[in-house]
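Practice set, problem 2.
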Amino acid sequence: MNKHILSGNEAVALGAYQAGVKVASAYPGTPSTEILQNFATYDGVYAEWAPNEKVALEVAIGSAMTGVRTLFTTKHVGLNVAADPLMTLAYTGITGGLLIVCADDPGMHSSQNEQDNRYYARFAKIPMLEPSDSQEAKAMVRKGCACPNPTTRRPFCA
């Protein structure tokens, strides 16, 4: 077995690729920028930067509604910008599986403030996975990319 040392962002990108994600959309912002940059290097995927986080999530929702496994990444404050489509998504549902990766920044290493986006998951009533290291991030991406519950058609959120 080959071992690779990956950052959390690299592990998320690899996990998404291995889980069959075909479309990813994001707005660049540290600490999440490298996820889309790494995902875009894989063959057979479509990755795009959007003009803002709201548009990026709307692209991801549209893709997931057509049955495609999709990834949306954002930094913590970017989820504020995307809050409107996030809340609508929570009750309309999808069919393709959508993983929302929100990179919080405890301690404000690269951001202007701190924000705990676990409250968004609770408010939207969508599942949230919280990895503690790169290996867990990769594993949880695969779990989060599983098809949504066919009864609720709710997305997973990490």
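Problem 2, part (b): a different protein.
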Amino acid sequence: MKKISLGPPGLVFQVRILFQKNPYFVVNPNMKMNLPIADLHCDLLSYLALVPGADPYIKDQIACAIPWLEEGGVKMQVLAIYTNVEDASMRIASKQADLFGKLLQNHDQSLTAFNQEYIANVDKESCIGVIASVENAAGFGTEKSTWEEIYAQFDSIVEKVGQLAYISLTHHTENRFGGGNYTEGIGLKEDGKRLLDYMAGKRIPVDLSHTSDLLAEGILNHIDRHHLPIPVIASHSNFRAIWDHKRNISDEFALEVIQRGGLIGVNFLREFLDREVPERLYEHILHGVKMGENAISFGADFFYTLNFPDKNRHPFYFPLVENAGKYPSILEALRESMSEAQVRKLAFENVFNFYQKLWS
């Protein structure tokens, strides 16, 4: 039995690590404590890349600032490399990949890489494990980029960040690879197929969170038709059956993710939960647990909102989920409706098990 710090300063958890197929935390049931948290999406990197004077330690600037992550007991955090569809997309993506490396080097050992070594030695880790993802493949290539340039950019980003948690082919809009979630009638394009072919075998999941339904269908069909070894997740998506929004995932595609052994991360944005009812969060989570308790996880989607032009979107988050420090209270509320085993799966086990299996 070893004691390690897994949460806010001064909070010590007593854990032991069992290495069977998957490593996971076993917590003394007689101790009342916050579970460690794994979260599949935040936009700390684009905040640092694009906001003048951005500081990852300023809590009132972004809800996923490092102190908030520590306060919430976050042990694994995905940092998205986000770009719009624009001429500068490759440069901005490269800048964020560089910033990912600087975060690991310059921040007092509060962060470390979430990778195979981290999982294998998690009993010795007291810091937050972080891993990059790509949100919008426009960061790999503009509409005019050659495929030689796209391949080089892809390889360069992977080399800089070490591993990618997942890749989203699109964001809200259309790009050369396919249709985003706010587009109609645009599915998987030929360039999207070529990018999937390049991803195959690299142990990088494809993310359905920002696809049009037609693009999601095209991705799944292309993977199946060509027997591509590409895992499928929905990193930060709520359920359309609970809140009917194009940004949310349909039960049809949610079941595809679940049956393929993927993950679905519940999103905290008010626009995708319910614009008026904060507690709808719990309905999304419980719906996910009912569909596949081994897939449900968190994908909070915290990003810099202070300069967002559409004031109708403010506030972006209900007080219930307004920053990463809220995870303990969320889990405490869910204990009335979920078993302790299900709460643990949601908190961190599903994510840890998914990546341990993917990388083994």
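Answer key, part (b): Residues 164 and 271 are 27 Å apart (CA to CA). The domain at 2-359 is CATH 3.20.20.140 (TIM Barrel).
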